[in-house]
Amino acid sequence: MASSKCTTIVRYMSSASSQGMIKPPIKVFGIEGRYATALFSAGSKQKNLETIEKDLTKFQTALKSDEVLKEFVDNPINKRLLKANTLQLAAKKLALSPPSANFLGKYILILI
Fold this sequence. Notes:
Blueprint: H1 2-19, H2 30-45, H3 49-65, H4 67-74, H5 80-93, H6 98-111
Helix pairs in contact: 2-6, 5-6
């Protein structure tokens, strides 16, 4: 009885957060799509989608131009926590907005 109430509460809470999501104009699938949708939703709510786009372009340029950073991120031997810390430092160095830095430091590690 108590476990079914907990399950109901958990389901309610999880559906409440998904109801607040803003859907992107293009539907994307998979894990990448899930995180891209979350970033789009956060950017839409904060009204800074253009800033996030510029941040991601800036980070992509940094990865292309900095071979050491690219090799470090691509190397499967490096621990995820070390990669997360390095990406957070890169986000600070590039002066990325908080949603972009959060995305790079936490969510992108699932995709790497």
